[in-house]
Structures are given as structure tokens and as C-alpha cells.
Write a structure and sequence with these properties.
Elements (H helix, E strand, L loop, with lengths): L2 H34 L3 H9 L1 H30 L1 H28 L1 H8 L9 H12 L2 H17 L4 H5 L1 H15 L8 H16 L2 H6 L13 H16 L2 H13 L6 H36 L3 H37 L7 H14 L2 H17 L4 H53 L4 H10 L1 H15 L10 H25 L3 H19 L1
Helix pairs in contact: 1-9, 1-14, 1-15, 2-6, 2-14, 3-4, 3-7, 3-12, 3-13, 3-14, 4-7, 5-6, 6-10, 7-10, 9-10, 12-18, 13-18, 14-15, 14-16, 14-17, 14-18, 15-16, 15-17, 15-19, 15-20, 15-21, 16-18, 17-18, 20-21
């Protein structure tokens, strides 16, 4: 099987599983929004979850995965399965030890940490205290998230993607249960959601164990911390802690600044970011996870031309998928929040404030997608230093723009600052990669970008026309509005796909051909 087909197949599996997890994530946010609205309790909860979620990116899905997957892939393919199992046990023991200590430190230092990341909360009585309580409850989640990421990396290298990708469904269901059933048992009720996070993290790890065991990875304890492979992973991890998690670091800066804005601002940004992350998780993250093992194999074989072809293919896929997704989010922002969130404590004012945050976030989807594909290329080449150097400039840009734009546009200015910083990050990464490995098909990518403009315009006309049929300021006719929204999304996607075929956008044609061949095979069976 060619690397293109491998990437496409893995992306499809990851995308399907992640779609399921994002749907349950949307349900989770709807439940939390309806019960708690956007205000005191949700501001405290989302701020408290910021640090463990950031550390999850640092130690787990971010630098650890990026450093572990290429190294582990090389061990498996060059030294055999038995050596790979030994390395897996050592990494499991080392990561578990480090994250257990980090979790204990985070709980003990919680009051200081909360004051640091949410300084503006001190102006509202009890808000910092509630944030501190929730942070203490949720901080150990980082331990479970780290072990989950290690298990996911092992399974991905062994060409198993579904179980790790679908595990967030368990976390979402646990948080829904916490909001719906545990919250009434506690004062304040939001504590129930925090306990749901902790329970969900544990369950996510446990569901990986049977799959690992079937592949011979028992993951017992091995304290050989001087092993050269572990040291190599650690060396790659250290600079990558900042580089791969740049977007999340910027989110922390955004929420820190938002703590000085009127109450509800942190919640508006969170809900806006969550919907922004829906297409990001379904395709961008899935493609990034799928492309890293393929690129790692090519880098290990010193097949730089093959690596460039995989990168070019991935960037074009990002273009044809994220551009319509970003445009769709901007056009459908208010209708989406009206249909799915409005009701209970979440009124139309919250819908409008959250919608404008999403509109400001949405253009960054394309540039974030580029970065999520380019960064693994550096890691496949075992270069984690370059993304770090770029990350510091991006952090500075986000902070400066955030401070300036929030003075005029409030939380929307913070969302726009993050989008602009993400754009700068993508361009700097691409420029650095070109200097490292030579031409990477930028002209071909630009040609793809230009060719999708007509399909995008056609899609926009159809979606705007369809959305005029809805009444988005009221929840009285939710079913009708939901049908209008669904029809607008379906019609827009269909017009985009057909227009793309007519305009001979090859990436859309290839995707359609792949889908048609799979359907044909299923019929023959």
C-alpha cells in the first residue's frame, strides 16, 4: 500500500472515530451550557481546566507523542517487536512517574497557579476560590491523559487508530453524567462536572489495555531510566514541549487576558473555541496523527522526496477541507448556537456573543491545519528545536495583539489576535521547513488554493440563501430551525463538492474516487 493510501485510510478511520467523539463533545457542551449558562461557574470551570488541559498537550498529545512516535517506529522496524515492547515498558514507567509527581505538585500549588492564570477573577468575590477547588479536583487528569497518549502512540505505530481516537467519547459521556446526575449532589453544583473529568480520564486509559495486550504490549514496570532510547525521546521532548503546544499556550494567554473582561467572556471564548475545534479534531488532528507514522518511516529510510510528497498531499487535503469548514463556521455561527445551545441559562445574548467569537476564530482553521501538518514533518526529521524558536515569536505576537485588540473589541479582539498569531506561526513554519529540506511544493499548494475559490463562492451563496429561512433569535421552533440549518449545511457541502469536480480540483476528485471505489467494493461483497 502506498503512503498516500496509508495516510488516507488512517485519516478516514481517525476522522470517523473523532467525528463521533466531537458529536458527544457537542452534546456535553450543550448540557453544560443549558445547566450552567455562561457566567460565574462556567468561567471558573473553564479556567480551572486550562492548566491540566495545557499540560496534557505538553506531556501527552504534544511533545511526548511527537518525540515518541518517530523513535518508537524506528525501534520497531529496525530492532524488532521484542525490543519495541521493552522500550514501551520503560516509557510507560518513566512517563507515569513524572506525571504522578506533576499531578501532586499541581494540586499542592493550585492556589498560586490559579492566581497566576486568572488574575482578573480576584475582582469577583469567590471566583478564585471556586477556580482553585475545581483545579485541585481536575489536575490529576494529566496523569491519565499522558498514559492515554503513550498507549495511542504505540497503537498508531502498529497501525491501529480507532480505539485511541474514539476514547474521548468516554470522557464526554462522563462529563455529561457529571453535569446531569452528580451536580445536584454538590454545592457548588459545577463540582460534579469536574469529577466527571477525572472519572472519564481513568476510563479512557483502561479501554486501551485490552487492545495493547492483544498486540503483546503488557506495559509492565521497567525502571531502566538510563536506556539510550528513553534518553533520545527525552531530548526530543524537551524543546518540543513549547513548540508542538503553541496553540494551547496561546489559548492560555487568551483566557488570562479574558479574566479582566466582563463576566462571561471566558465562557464565550470557550464555547467559540469548542465549535472551532470540531472540524479541527475531525480532520486536521486526524490527518496530523495519520501522517506522522508515514513520514517517520520515510525519514528513517532517508526518503526525503517521498516525505515531501506526503507533506504536499497532506497540505492539499488540509486546503480542500478546512477552507469550506472555516467558511461554513462563519456563516452558520449564530444558527448553530441558536439550535444547539440556546435554552435554559443560555439566552440569545450569549448566542450572539459566542457567535462573534467563533467568527473571529474560524479563519485560523486553515493556518492551524497547515501548522499541524508541518510540525510533524520536523518531528519526523527529529528536529524539535525549530518549532520552539518559532513558537516564542508567535506567543509574543498573540500577547501583544491580544492586549491591543481587547481594548476595542473585548473577547472578540482576543479571538482575532489568536487567529492572526496562528497565521504567523504557519507561515514561519513553512518558511523554516523550506530552508531545511528545499522546495516543498508551495506553488502547487497555491494553485490548489486558487482552484477552490469558485466552489467556496458557490457554497457561500447557497448557504446564505438557505439560512434566511430560519428564525434564529427564538427557540420556539427549534425543530424547524434545525432542519433549515441541516439543509443549509448539506446543500453547501454538496454544492462545494460538485463545483470542485466541475472546476477540476484534483484533490476533491481523488477523494470522490476513493469513496466510490470503497462503495463498489462493499456492493461486491
Amino acid at each position: 500500500m502506498s503512503e498516500k493510501k496509508t495516510i488516507s485510510r488512517a485519516t478516514g478511520v481517525l476522522g470517523g472515530a473523532t467525528l463521533l467523539s466531537r458529536i458527544t463533545g457537542l452534546m456535553r457542551d450543550m448540557v453544560v451550557g443549558r445547566i450552567f449558562g455562561a457566567g460565574f461557574a462556567t468561567d471558573a470551570f473553564f479556567m480551572a481546566f486550562t492548566l491540566p488541559n495545557l499540560l496534557r498537550r505538553f506531556f501527552a498529545e504534544g511533545s511526548m507523542t511527537a518525540a515518541f512516535v518517530p523513535t518508537f517506529s524506528a525501534v520497531l522496524h529496525k530492532q524488532g517487536a521484542e525490543e519495541a515492547r521493552r522500550v514501551a515498558r520503560i516509557c510507560f514507567t518513566a512517563l507515569g512517574t513524572v506525571l504522578l509527581l506533576v499531578s501532586l505538585l499541581g494540586v499542592l500549588a493550585s492556589p498560586w497557579v490559579v492566581s497566576l492564570i486568572g488574575p482578573g477573577f480576584g475582582d469577583t468575590a469567590g471566583k478564585l476560590l471556586l477556580t482553585d477547588l475545581l483545579n485541585r479536583i481536575m489536575f490529576p487528569y494529566i496523569l491519565f491523559a499522558g498514559l492515554l497518549a503513550l498507549a495511542s502512540g504505540i497503537l498508531n505505530v502498529n497501525d491501529h487508530y480507532f480505539t485511541p481516537a474514539v476514547s474521548p467519547v468516554i470522557l464526554n459521556l462522563a462529563m455529561i453524567a457529571g453535569a446531569a446526575w452528580l451536580s445536584p449532589l454538590f454545592d457548588p453544583p459545577i463540582v460534579g462536572v469536574a469529577l466527571g473529568v477525572l472519572a472519564g480520564g481513568l476510563l479512557q486509559v483502561l479501554m486501551q489495555w485490552p487492545v495493547l495486550a492483544r498486540r503483546g504490549y503488557g506495559l509492565g514496570l521497567d525502571f531502566s531510566f538510563r536506556d539510550p532510547t528513553l534518553r533520545r525521546i527525552a531530548v526530543l521532548m524537551v524543546p518540543g514541549i513549547a513548540g508542538v503546544a503553541i496553540y494551547q499556550i496561546n489559548v492560555v494567554i487568551t483566557r488570562l487576558l479574558a479574566s479582566f473582561l466582563p463576566q462571561g467572556s471566558v465562557s464565550y471564548l470557550y464555547y467559540g473555541q469548542r465549535l472551532f475545534e470540531f472540524p479541527q479534531g475531525v480532520f486536521v488532528v486526524s490527518l496530523a496523527q495519520a501522517v506522522l507514522p508515514a513520514m517517520s518511516r520515510q525519514a528513517a529510510a532517508e526518503d526525503i522526496e517521498g516525505l515531501k510528497q506526503s507533506l504536499d498531499f497532506a497540505l492539499k487535503l488540509i486546503t480542500v477541507v478546512t477552507l469550506p469548514a472555516a467558511l461554513g463556521l462563519m456563516l452558520c455561527a449564530t444558527p448553530i448556537y441558536s439550535v444547539f445551545f440556546m435554552g435554559g441559562a443560555f439566552d440569545y445574548a450569549a448566542v450572539k456573543q459566542t457567535s462573534v467569537a467563533l467568527i473571529a476564530y474560524a479563519p485560523g482553521l486553515y493556518f492551524l491545519g497547515m501548522a499541524r501538518v508541518v510540525v510533524p514533518t520536523f518531528y519526523a526529521l527529529q528536529d524539535t528545536r525549530t518549532p520552539v524558536a518559532i513558537s516564542f515569536w508567535t506567543l509574543l505576537i498573540n500577547a501583544l495583539l491580544g492586549v491591543g485588540l481587547m481594548q476595542f473589541y473585548g473577547h472578540v479582539g482576543l479571538a482575532l489576535a489568536l487567529t492572526l498569531a496562528t497565521c504567523c506561526n504557519a507561515f514561519l513554519l513553512v518558511s523554516a521547513l523550506r530552508r531545511k529540506i528545499g522546495p516543498i511544493g508551495i506553488k502547487s499548494l497555491f494553485s490548489c488554493f486558487v482552484r477552490v475559490l469558485v466552489p467556496l463562492a458557490a457554497m457561500a451563496v447557497v448557504v446564505i440563501y438557505m439560512l434566511k429561512l430560519g428564525q434564529w433569535s427564538t427557540a420556539d421552533d427549534r425543530l424547524r430551525n434545525g432542519l433549515v440549518l441541516a439543509l443549509a449545511v448539506f446543500s453547501g457541502a454538496l454544492v462545494y463538492a460538485v463545483s470542485g469536480l466541475l472546476c477540476k480540483v484534483s484533490e476533491i476528485s481523488e477523494g470522490w474516487g476513493l469513496l466510490r471505489s470503497r462503495l463498489t467494493r462493499k456492493k461486491r461483497r
